[in-house]
Protein backbone atom coordinates (compact mmCIF):
# COMPACT_ATOMS: atom_id res chain seq x y z
CA UNK A 1 0.00 0.00 0.00
CA UNK A 2 2.85 2.36 0.91
CA UNK A 3 4.55 1.51 -2.38
CA UNK A 4 1.48 2.61 -4.39
CA UNK A 5 1.17 5.80 -2.35
CA UNK A 6 4.74 6.85 -3.11
CA UNK A 7 4.30 5.93 -6.75
CA UNK A 8 1.15 8.11 -6.90
CA UNK A 9 2.99 11.11 -5.44
CA UNK A 10 5.81 10.60 -7.91
CA UNK A 11 3.40 10.52 -10.87
CA UNK A 12 1.62 13.67 -9.56
CA UNK A 13 4.89 15.60 -9.20
CA UNK A 14 6.00 14.47 -12.65
CA UNK A 15 2.70 15.56 -14.22
CA UNK A 16 2.86 18.95 -12.49
CA UNK A 17 6.37 19.47 -13.85
CA UNK A 18 5.18 18.52 -17.33
CA UNK A 19 2.26 20.92 -17.10
CA UNK A 20 4.44 23.82 -15.94
CA UNK A 21 7.11 23.14 -18.57
CA UNK A 22 4.49 22.90 -21.31
CA UNK A 23 2.87 26.14 -20.25
CA UNK A 24 6.13 28.10 -19.93
CA UNK A 25 7.28 27.01 -23.35
CA UNK A 26 3.88 27.52 -25.02
CA UNK A 27 3.85 30.76 -27.10
CA UNK A 28 0.05 31.01 -26.76
CA UNK A 29 0.32 30.94 -22.96
CA UNK A 30 3.10 33.54 -22.97
CA UNK A 31 1.09 35.84 -25.25
CA UNK A 32 -1.96 35.48 -23.02
CA UNK A 33 0.16 36.10 -19.93
CA UNK A 34 1.66 39.23 -21.51
CA UNK A 35 -1.82 40.55 -22.43
CA UNK A 36 -3.06 39.77 -18.92
CA UNK A 37 -0.15 41.54 -17.20
CA UNK A 38 -0.29 44.60 -19.46
CA UNK A 39 -4.01 45.18 -19.10
CA UNK A 40 -3.99 44.46 -15.37
CA UNK A 41 -1.24 47.06 -14.91
CA UNK A 42 -3.21 49.61 -16.94
CA UNK A 43 -6.37 48.95 -14.92
CA UNK A 44 -4.44 49.36 -11.65
CA UNK A 45 -2.88 52.60 -12.89
CA UNK A 46 -5.73 54.35 -14.68
CA UNK A 47 -8.89 52.31 -14.13
CA UNK A 48 -10.64 52.79 -17.49
CA UNK A 49 -12.44 49.44 -17.28
CA UNK A 50 -14.54 50.11 -20.36
CA UNK A 51 -11.39 50.43 -22.45
CA UNK A 52 -9.25 47.67 -20.92
CA UNK A 53 -11.74 45.08 -19.72
CA UNK A 54 -12.48 43.34 -23.08
CA UNK A 55 -8.82 42.52 -23.77
CA UNK A 56 -8.27 41.66 -20.08
CA UNK A 57 -11.13 39.13 -20.19
CA UNK A 58 -9.81 37.71 -23.49
CA UNK A 59 -6.38 37.22 -21.89
CA UNK A 60 -7.95 35.35 -18.96
CA UNK A 61 -9.86 33.11 -21.38
CA UNK A 62 -6.62 32.35 -23.27
CA UNK A 63 -4.76 31.52 -20.06
CA UNK A 64 -7.51 29.33 -18.62
CA UNK A 65 -8.05 27.51 -21.92
CA UNK A 66 -4.32 26.85 -22.33
CA UNK A 67 -3.99 25.60 -18.75
CA UNK A 68 -7.06 23.36 -19.05
CA UNK A 69 -6.00 21.93 -22.44
CA UNK A 70 -2.44 21.24 -21.26
CA UNK A 71 -3.59 19.64 -18.00
CA UNK A 72 -6.02 17.30 -19.78
CA UNK A 73 -3.37 16.26 -22.32
CA UNK A 74 -0.80 15.49 -19.64
CA UNK A 75 -3.23 13.51 -17.47
CA UNK A 76 -4.61 11.47 -20.38
CA UNK A 77 -1.26 10.76 -21.96
CA UNK A 78 1.52 9.86 -19.58
CA UNK A 79 3.91 9.96 -22.53
CA UNK A 80 2.78 13.50 -23.49
CA UNK A 81 5.68 15.71 -24.45
CA UNK A 82 5.76 19.52 -24.33
CA UNK A 83 5.34 21.41 -27.57
CA UNK A 84 7.95 21.03 -30.29
CA UNK A 85 9.52 24.38 -29.49
CA UNK A 86 11.11 22.77 -26.42
CA UNK A 87 13.41 20.92 -28.80
CA UNK A 88 14.58 24.23 -30.29
CA UNK A 89 17.94 25.04 -28.78
CA UNK A 90 17.61 27.66 -26.04
CA UNK A 91 13.82 28.15 -26.32
CA UNK A 92 13.12 26.73 -22.86
CA UNK A 93 15.55 29.22 -21.29
CA UNK A 94 14.25 32.06 -23.43
CA UNK A 95 10.64 31.34 -22.51
CA UNK A 96 11.50 31.29 -18.80
CA UNK A 97 13.31 34.62 -19.19
CA UNK A 98 10.27 36.05 -21.00
CA UNK A 99 7.91 34.84 -18.25
CA UNK A 100 10.10 36.32 -15.49
CA UNK A 101 10.50 39.60 -17.40
CA UNK A 102 6.75 39.99 -17.92
CA UNK A 103 6.16 39.22 -14.24
CA UNK A 104 8.74 41.74 -13.03
CA UNK A 105 7.80 44.49 -15.50
CA UNK A 106 4.08 44.52 -14.82
CA UNK A 107 4.45 43.42 -11.21
CA UNK A 108 6.53 46.50 -10.42
CA UNK A 109 4.02 48.72 -12.27
CA UNK A 110 1.13 47.22 -10.31
CA UNK A 111 3.04 47.69 -7.04
CA UNK A 112 3.69 51.36 -7.85
CA UNK A 113 0.03 51.87 -8.72
CA UNK A 114 -0.91 50.56 -5.29
CA UNK A 115 1.37 52.86 -3.29
CA UNK A 116 1.69 56.60 -2.59
CA UNK A 117 -1.53 57.41 -4.50
CA UNK A 118 0.22 56.73 -7.82
CA UNK A 119 -2.75 54.99 -9.40
CA UNK A 120 -6.34 53.85 -9.17
CA UNK A 121 -5.28 50.79 -7.19
CA UNK A 122 -3.87 52.98 -4.43
CA UNK A 123 -7.13 54.90 -4.16
CA UNK A 124 -9.07 51.63 -4.12
CA UNK A 125 -6.88 50.27 -1.31
CA UNK A 126 -7.32 53.57 0.53
CA UNK A 127 -11.10 53.26 0.26
CA UNK A 128 -11.01 49.69 1.55
CA UNK A 129 -8.97 50.80 4.57
CA UNK A 130 -10.62 54.11 5.33
CA UNK A 131 -14.07 54.23 3.74
CA UNK A 132 -17.35 52.89 5.06
CA UNK A 133 -20.89 53.21 3.75
CA UNK A 134 -24.27 52.73 5.37
CA UNK A 135 -27.82 52.65 4.02
CA UNK A 136 -29.55 55.98 4.61
CA UNK A 137 -32.97 55.01 5.97
CA UNK A 138 -33.89 58.01 8.13
CA UNK A 139 -33.70 60.39 5.19
CA UNK A 140 -36.60 62.75 5.92
CA UNK A 141 -35.58 65.91 7.75
CA UNK A 142 -39.11 66.72 8.94
CA UNK A 143 -39.54 63.30 10.52
CA UNK A 144 -36.08 62.35 11.78
CA UNK A 145 -34.16 65.64 11.91
CA UNK A 146 -30.37 65.61 11.73
CA UNK A 147 -30.24 63.02 14.51
CA UNK A 148 -31.49 60.37 12.07
CA UNK A 149 -28.32 60.75 10.00
CA UNK A 150 -26.06 59.89 12.90
CA UNK A 151 -28.34 57.10 14.14
CA UNK A 152 -28.01 55.45 10.72
CA UNK A 153 -24.21 55.91 10.78
CA UNK A 154 -23.96 54.33 14.24
CA UNK A 155 -25.50 51.13 12.85
CA UNK A 156 -22.13 50.44 11.22
CA UNK A 157 -19.60 52.86 12.68
CA UNK A 158 -19.03 53.69 16.33
CA UNK A 159 -18.73 57.44 16.92
CA UNK A 160 -17.28 59.36 19.88
CA UNK A 161 -19.93 60.63 22.27
CA UNK A 162 -18.71 64.22 21.83
CA UNK A 163 -18.14 65.37 18.25
CA UNK A 164 -16.69 68.62 16.91
CA UNK A 165 -16.90 70.04 13.39
CA UNK A 166 -13.77 71.04 11.50
CA UNK A 167 -15.66 73.57 9.40
CA UNK A 168 -19.44 73.31 9.07
CA UNK A 169 -22.43 71.08 8.45
CA UNK A 170 -24.31 71.69 5.18
CA UNK A 171 -27.49 69.95 4.04
CA UNK A 172 -30.05 70.29 1.24
CA UNK A 173 -33.59 68.92 1.22
CA UNK A 174 -36.71 68.92 -0.93
CA UNK A 175 -40.02 70.54 0.00
CA UNK A 176 -41.35 67.16 1.17
CA UNK A 177 -38.48 66.87 3.66
CA UNK A 178 -36.42 64.33 1.70
CA UNK A 179 -32.70 64.98 2.26
CA UNK A 180 -30.89 65.18 -1.09
CA UNK A 181 -27.34 65.84 0.08
CA UNK A 182 -25.20 66.73 3.08
CA UNK A 183 -21.58 66.78 4.14
CA UNK A 184 -19.50 67.55 7.19
CA UNK A 185 -16.07 66.79 8.64
CA UNK A 186 -16.19 65.92 12.34
CA UNK A 187 -13.70 64.62 14.89
CA UNK A 188 -13.51 63.61 18.51
CA UNK A 189 -11.92 61.19 20.99
CA UNK A 190 -13.02 57.59 21.35
CA UNK A 191 -13.58 55.93 24.73
CA UNK A 192 -9.90 54.92 24.87
CA UNK A 193 -8.72 58.46 24.14
CA UNK A 194 -7.81 57.90 20.49
CA UNK A 195 -8.36 60.85 18.15
CA UNK A 196 -10.75 59.95 15.34
CA UNK A 197 -12.11 61.87 12.37
CA UNK A 198 -15.01 61.28 9.99
CA UNK A 199 -15.61 62.95 6.64
CA UNK A 200 -19.31 62.27 6.10
CA UNK A 201 -21.17 62.86 2.84
CA UNK A 202 -24.32 61.87 0.98
CA UNK A 203 -25.70 62.61 -2.47
CA UNK A 204 -29.10 61.16 -3.34
CA UNK A 205 -28.35 61.43 -7.08
CA UNK A 206 -25.32 59.15 -6.74
CA UNK A 207 -26.29 56.61 -4.10
CA UNK A 208 -28.77 55.75 -1.37
CA UNK A 209 -25.87 55.26 1.06
CA UNK A 210 -23.98 57.58 3.39
CA UNK A 211 -20.23 57.58 2.79
CA UNK A 212 -17.86 57.85 5.77
CA UNK A 213 -14.14 58.50 5.25
CA UNK A 214 -12.00 57.63 8.28
CA UNK A 215 -8.58 58.76 9.50
CA UNK A 216 -8.44 62.16 7.82
CA UNK A 217 -6.35 64.99 9.23
CA UNK A 218 -8.52 67.15 11.50
CA UNK A 219 -6.00 68.40 14.04
CA UNK A 220 -6.37 68.18 17.79
CA UNK A 221 -8.08 71.50 18.46
CA UNK A 222 -11.39 70.61 20.09
CA UNK A 223 -13.15 73.97 20.00
CA UNK A 224 -16.42 74.03 21.93
CA UNK A 225 -17.69 76.65 19.47
CA UNK A 226 -17.73 73.81 16.92
CA UNK A 227 -19.76 71.30 18.93
CA UNK A 228 -22.07 69.16 16.82
CA UNK A 229 -24.66 68.37 19.50
CA UNK A 230 -26.31 71.85 19.46
CA UNK A 231 -27.11 71.30 15.77
CA UNK A 232 -28.95 68.05 16.52
CA UNK A 233 -30.83 69.48 19.49
CA UNK A 234 -31.76 72.73 17.72
CA UNK A 235 -33.11 70.98 14.63
CA UNK A 236 -35.34 68.89 16.91
CA UNK A 237 -37.35 71.96 17.97
CA UNK A 238 -37.33 74.04 14.77
CA UNK A 239 -40.67 73.79 12.87
CA UNK A 240 -38.72 73.32 9.66
CA UNK A 241 -41.63 72.42 7.39
CA UNK A 242 -43.59 75.45 8.51
CA UNK A 243 -40.55 77.75 8.38
CA UNK A 244 -39.62 76.98 4.75
CA UNK A 245 -43.17 76.76 3.40
CA UNK A 246 -43.40 80.56 3.28
CA UNK A 247 -40.71 80.58 0.57
CA UNK A 248 -42.65 78.17 -1.67
CA UNK A 249 -39.56 76.66 -3.33
CA UNK A 250 -38.77 73.08 -4.38
CA UNK A 251 -35.48 72.82 -2.52
CA UNK A 252 -34.04 74.29 0.66
CA UNK A 253 -30.77 74.33 2.51
CA UNK A 254 -29.59 74.05 6.12
CA UNK A 255 -26.17 75.17 7.29
CA UNK A 256 -24.50 75.21 10.71
CA UNK A 257 -21.12 76.76 11.56
CA UNK A 258 -21.31 76.32 15.33
CA UNK A 259 -21.38 79.22 17.77
CA UNK A 260 -21.51 82.59 16.03
CA UNK A 261 -21.41 86.21 17.10
CA UNK A 262 -23.97 88.25 15.14
CA UNK A 263 -23.10 91.48 16.86
CA UNK A 264 -26.10 93.74 17.37
CA UNK A 265 -27.84 92.88 14.10
CA UNK A 266 -30.96 90.75 14.63
CA UNK A 267 -32.01 90.34 10.97
CA UNK A 268 -33.28 86.82 10.55
CA UNK A 269 -32.25 85.75 14.07
CA UNK A 270 -34.84 83.71 15.98
CA UNK A 271 -34.27 82.53 19.53
CA UNK A 272 -36.17 79.32 20.22
CA UNK A 273 -36.51 77.29 23.40
CA UNK A 274 -36.68 73.52 23.90
CA UNK A 275 -40.48 73.61 23.61
CA UNK A 276 -40.36 75.32 20.21
CA UNK A 277 -41.43 78.76 21.47
CA UNK A 278 -39.85 81.55 19.41
CA UNK A 279 -38.56 84.91 20.68
CA UNK A 280 -38.06 87.97 18.49
CA UNK A 281 -34.85 90.02 18.78
CA UNK A 282 -35.74 93.01 16.63
CA UNK A 283 -34.66 95.70 19.09
CA UNK A 284 -31.88 94.05 21.06
CA UNK A 285 -29.26 96.27 22.68
CA UNK A 286 -26.83 93.43 23.33
CA UNK A 287 -24.62 91.23 21.21
CA UNK A 288 -26.33 88.15 19.81
CA UNK A 289 -24.23 85.03 20.33
CA UNK A 290 -25.36 81.44 19.93
CA UNK A 291 -25.12 78.12 18.14
CA UNK A 292 -26.95 79.11 14.96
CA UNK A 293 -28.79 76.78 12.56
CA UNK A 294 -29.70 78.61 9.33
CA UNK A 295 -32.42 77.70 6.85
CA UNK A 296 -32.15 79.23 3.38
CA UNK A 297 -33.01 78.85 -0.30
CA UNK A 298 -29.94 77.69 -2.28
CA UNK A 299 -28.85 80.27 -4.82
CA UNK A 300 -31.25 82.83 -3.37
CA UNK A 301 -29.52 83.57 -0.06
CA UNK A 302 -28.74 87.13 -1.17
CA UNK A 303 -32.37 87.78 -2.07
CA UNK A 304 -34.32 85.80 0.52
CA UNK A 305 -33.17 86.42 4.09
CA UNK A 306 -32.33 83.10 5.80
CA UNK A 307 -34.01 82.12 9.06
CA UNK A 308 -31.34 81.71 11.75
CA UNK A 309 -32.31 79.79 14.90
CA UNK A 310 -30.51 79.85 18.26
CA UNK A 311 -31.61 77.34 20.89
CA UNK A 312 -31.77 79.09 24.28
CA UNK A 313 -32.04 77.74 27.80
CA UNK A 314 -28.74 75.85 27.83
CA UNK A 315 -26.00 77.98 29.46
CA UNK A 316 -23.28 76.00 27.68
CA UNK A 317 -24.75 76.77 24.25
CA UNK A 318 -25.99 80.37 24.36
CA UNK A 319 -23.81 82.95 26.09
CA UNK A 320 -25.75 85.73 27.85
CA UNK A 321 -26.30 88.62 25.45
CA UNK A 322 -24.23 91.22 27.32
CA UNK A 323 -21.59 93.64 26.21
CA UNK A 324 -17.89 92.94 26.97
CA UNK A 325 -17.73 95.79 29.51
CA UNK A 326 -20.52 94.13 31.51
CA UNK A 327 -18.83 90.77 31.64
CA UNK A 328 -17.27 89.33 34.75
CA UNK A 329 -13.54 88.46 34.72
CA UNK A 330 -14.29 84.77 34.25
CA UNK A 331 -16.54 85.52 31.29
CA UNK A 332 -13.83 87.73 29.78
CA UNK A 333 -11.44 84.79 29.95
CA UNK A 334 -13.95 82.69 28.03
CA UNK A 335 -14.01 85.35 25.32
CA UNK A 336 -10.34 84.67 24.56
CA UNK A 337 -11.34 81.45 22.81
CA UNK A 338 -10.44 81.78 19.14
CA UNK A 339 -13.32 81.43 16.69
CA UNK A 340 -14.11 82.25 13.07
CA UNK A 341 -14.72 85.86 14.14
CA UNK A 342 -12.11 86.28 16.88
CA UNK A 343 -8.39 85.62 17.37
CA UNK A 344 -6.12 86.22 20.35
CA UNK A 345 -2.46 86.46 19.40
CA UNK A 346 -1.46 86.61 23.07
CA UNK A 347 -3.37 86.69 26.33
CA UNK A 348 -3.70 90.48 26.00
CA UNK A 349 -3.68 91.18 22.25
CA UNK A 350 -6.66 90.08 20.21
CA UNK A 351 -8.64 90.89 17.07
CA UNK A 352 -12.36 90.57 16.50
CA UNK A 353 -14.68 90.88 13.53
CA UNK A 354 -17.91 92.67 14.40
CA UNK A 355 -21.13 92.42 12.41
CA UNK A 356 -21.83 96.04 11.48
CA UNK A 357 -24.86 95.49 9.28
CA UNK A 358 -26.78 92.92 7.26
CA UNK A 359 -28.83 93.34 4.10
CA UNK A 360 -30.43 90.69 1.87
CA UNK A 361 -28.23 87.96 3.27
CA UNK A 362 -24.97 89.92 2.97
CA UNK A 363 -22.89 90.84 6.00
CA UNK A 364 -20.84 93.97 6.70
CA UNK A 365 -17.97 93.66 9.17
CA UNK A 366 -15.67 95.95 11.09
CA UNK A 367 -12.40 94.86 12.73
CA UNK A 368 -11.59 95.65 16.36
CA UNK A 369 -8.43 95.19 18.41
CA UNK A 370 -7.84 94.78 22.12
CA UNK A 371 -4.55 95.13 24.00
CA UNK A 372 -5.90 94.33 27.48
CA UNK A 373 -7.35 90.84 27.12
CA UNK A 374 -10.77 91.94 25.93
CA UNK A 375 -11.59 94.54 28.57
CA UNK A 376 -11.90 97.19 25.87
CA UNK A 377 -11.98 97.02 22.06
CA UNK A 378 -11.09 99.66 19.48
CA UNK A 379 -12.26 99.57 15.86
CA UNK A 380 -9.17 99.70 13.62
CA UNK A 381 -10.86 99.01 10.26
CA UNK A 382 -14.46 99.85 9.39
CA UNK A 383 -14.54 97.66 6.26
CA UNK A 384 -11.74 95.04 6.18
CA UNK A 385 -13.43 93.01 3.41
CA UNK A 386 -13.94 96.08 1.19
CA UNK A 387 -17.60 95.26 0.78
CA UNK A 388 -20.05 92.56 1.82
CA UNK A 389 -19.49 88.84 2.36
CA UNK A 390 -21.74 85.92 3.21
CA UNK A 391 -19.88 85.29 6.46
CA UNK A 392 -16.48 85.30 8.12
CA UNK A 393 -14.69 81.95 7.94
CA UNK A 394 -11.60 82.71 9.98
CA UNK A 395 -9.11 85.21 11.38
CA UNK A 396 -5.44 84.78 12.30
CA UNK A 397 -2.49 87.07 13.07
CA UNK A 398 1.13 85.87 13.11
CA UNK A 399 2.60 89.08 14.54
CA UNK A 400 1.60 92.70 15.03
CA UNK A 401 1.68 93.29 11.25
CA UNK A 402 0.85 90.08 9.33
CA UNK A 403 -2.67 88.68 9.47
CA UNK A 404 -5.37 87.03 7.37
CA UNK A 405 -9.16 87.05 7.19
CA UNK A 406 -11.32 84.36 5.58
CA UNK A 407 -14.74 84.75 3.99
CA UNK A 408 -17.33 82.41 2.50
CA UNK A 409 -20.66 82.96 0.79
CA UNK A 410 -23.68 82.17 2.93
CA UNK A 411 -24.03 78.61 1.62
CA UNK A 412 -20.34 77.91 2.25
CA UNK A 413 -19.77 76.90 -1.40
CA UNK A 414 -16.97 79.35 -2.17
CA UNK A 415 -14.51 81.43 -0.20
CA UNK A 416 -11.73 84.00 -0.28
CA UNK A 417 -8.72 85.01 1.78
CA UNK A 418 -7.61 88.56 2.67
CA UNK A 419 -4.13 89.63 3.86
CA UNK A 420 -2.82 92.55 5.86
CA UNK A 421 0.79 93.55 6.46
CA UNK A 422 0.05 96.69 8.45
CA UNK A 423 -1.68 95.24 11.50
CA UNK A 424 -5.21 95.26 10.07
CA UNK A 425 -5.39 98.85 8.85
CA UNK A 426 -5.82 97.61 5.28
CA UNK A 427 -6.43 94.27 3.59
CA UNK A 428 -5.91 92.94 0.07
CA UNK A 429 -7.48 89.83 -1.43
CA UNK A 430 -5.03 86.94 -1.73
CA UNK A 431 -4.51 85.67 -5.27
CA UNK A 432 -3.44 82.13 -6.11
CA UNK A 433 -3.67 79.98 -9.23
CA UNK A 434 -6.74 77.73 -9.22
CA UNK A 435 -5.75 74.20 -10.14
CA UNK A 436 -7.70 72.46 -12.89
CA UNK A 437 -8.45 68.74 -12.68
CA UNK A 438 -10.18 66.38 -15.06
CA UNK A 439 -13.05 64.03 -14.30
CA UNK A 440 -13.10 60.45 -15.60
CA UNK A 441 -15.05 61.66 -18.64
CA UNK A 442 -12.29 64.15 -19.45
CA UNK A 443 -14.31 67.20 -18.44
CA UNK A 444 -12.07 69.84 -16.75
CA UNK A 445 -13.22 71.47 -13.51
CA UNK A 446 -11.74 73.78 -10.85
CA UNK A 447 -13.27 72.47 -7.60
CA UNK A 448 -10.81 74.01 -5.14
CA UNK A 449 -12.13 77.45 -4.28
CA UNK A 450 -12.38 77.77 -0.48
CA UNK A 451 -9.10 78.70 1.25
CA UNK A 452 -8.69 78.02 4.96
CA UNK A 453 -6.61 79.98 7.43
CA UNK A 454 -2.84 79.79 6.77
CA UNK A 455 -0.61 78.02 9.27
CA UNK A 456 3.16 78.11 9.69
CA UNK A 457 5.52 75.12 9.48
CA UNK A 458 9.31 75.55 9.68
CA UNK A 459 9.00 79.22 8.85
CA UNK A 460 6.90 78.59 5.74
CA UNK A 461 3.24 79.57 5.46
CA UNK A 462 0.89 76.77 4.38
CA UNK A 463 -2.68 77.10 3.11
CA UNK A 464 -5.20 74.36 2.42
CA UNK A 465 -7.73 75.25 -0.28
CA UNK A 466 -10.87 73.11 -0.01
CA UNK A 467 -13.99 72.70 -2.09
CA UNK A 468 -16.57 74.34 0.14
CA UNK A 469 -19.87 72.88 1.25
CA UNK A 470 -20.72 71.63 -2.26
CA UNK A 471 -17.42 69.83 -2.87
CA UNK A 472 -17.43 66.14 -3.75
CA UNK A 473 -14.39 65.72 -6.02
CA UNK A 474 -12.03 62.94 -4.93
CA UNK A 475 -13.52 62.53 -1.45
CA UNK A 476 -13.72 66.30 -0.94
CA UNK A 477 -9.94 66.59 -0.92
CA UNK A 478 -8.00 69.85 -0.59
CA UNK A 479 -4.97 71.38 -2.24
CA UNK A 480 -1.89 72.52 -0.35
CA UNK A 481 -0.20 75.83 -1.20
CA UNK A 482 2.93 77.31 0.37
CA UNK A 483 4.35 80.82 0.61
CA UNK A 484 7.91 81.85 1.39
CA UNK A 485 7.23 85.61 1.22
CA UNK A 486 4.74 85.97 4.10
CA UNK A 487 1.69 85.23 1.99
CA UNK A 488 2.25 87.66 -0.88
CA UNK A 489 2.51 84.82 -3.41
CA UNK A 490 1.47 81.19 -3.15
CA UNK A 491 2.84 78.09 -4.91
CA UNK A 492 0.80 74.95 -5.45
CA UNK A 493 2.38 71.90 -3.77
CA UNK A 494 0.04 68.91 -3.97
CA UNK A 495 -3.47 67.58 -3.52
CA UNK A 496 -4.21 66.43 0.02
CA UNK A 497 -6.67 63.65 0.81
CA UNK A 498 -8.73 64.18 3.94
Largest sheet: 10 strands, mixed
**Percentage of residues assigned to helices:** 25-40%
Overall morphology: elongated
Q: β content, as a range?
A: 25-35%
Structural class: alpha+beta
Identify the strand order in the major beta sheet. 1-5-4-3-2-6-9-10-7-8
Which parts are unreliable, with pLDDT below 50 for 5 consecutive residues or more? 318-335
Report the end-to-end length measured between terminal Cα atoms.
65 Å
**Radius of gyration (Å):** 31 Å
Give the quaternary arrangement of the chains. Answer: single chain
Count of DSSP E strands? 25
Total helices: the number is 10
Mean pLDDT: 83
Keywords:
498 residues; alpha+beta; ten-stranded mixed sheet; five-stranded antiparallel sheet; 28% helix
What does this molecule look like?
There is one protein chain. By secondary structure, the protein is α+β, with helices and mostly antiparallel strands. Among the domains are: 2-113, no CATH class; 131-321, no CATH class. Helix content is 28%, strand content 30%. The chain has ten helices and 25 strands. A ten-stranded mixed sheet has the order 1-5-4-3-2-6-9-10-7-8. Strands 21, 22, 23, 24 and 25 form a five-stranded antiparallel sheet that branches. A hairpin with a 2-residue loop joins strand 22 (455-457) and strand 23 (460-466). The radius of gyration is 31 Å and the shape is elongated.
Topology record:
Layout: H1 2-24, H2 27-46, H3 49-76, H4 91-113, H5 120-130, E1 131-135, H6 141-144, H7 147-153, E2 164-174, E3 179-189, E4 195-203, E5 209-214, H8 229-237, H9 240-245, E6 251-261, E7 269-272, E8 278-280, E9 289-296, E10 307-311, H10 329-334, E11 342-344, E12 350-359, E13 362-370, E14 378-381, E15 391-397, E16 403-408, E17 415-420, E18 428-429, E19 437-438, E20 444-445, E21 450-451, E22 455-457, E23 460-466, E24 478-483, E25 491-496
Parallel strand pairs: 7-10
Antiparallel strand pairs: 1-5, 2-3, 2-6, 3-4, 4-5, 6-9, 7-8, 9-10, 11-12, 12-13, 13-14, 15-16, 16-17, 17-18, 19-20, 21-23, 22-23, 23-24, 24-25
Helix pairs in contact: 1-3, 2-3, 2-4
Amino acid sequence: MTKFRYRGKYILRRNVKKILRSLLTNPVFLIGYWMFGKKLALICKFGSLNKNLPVFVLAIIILLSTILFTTIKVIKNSEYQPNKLTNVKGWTYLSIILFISITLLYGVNIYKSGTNYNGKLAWYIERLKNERSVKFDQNNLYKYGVKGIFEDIKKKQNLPEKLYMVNNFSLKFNSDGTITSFDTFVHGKSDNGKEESYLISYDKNKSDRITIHLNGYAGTNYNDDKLLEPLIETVKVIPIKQAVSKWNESQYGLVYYGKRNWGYNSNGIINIDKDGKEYSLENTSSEIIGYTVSLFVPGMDKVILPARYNLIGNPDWSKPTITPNQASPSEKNDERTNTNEQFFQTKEIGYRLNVADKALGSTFYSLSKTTNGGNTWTVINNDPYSGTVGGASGIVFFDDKLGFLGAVNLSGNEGALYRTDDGGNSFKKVNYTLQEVKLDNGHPIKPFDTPSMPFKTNGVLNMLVGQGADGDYNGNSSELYQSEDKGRTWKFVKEVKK
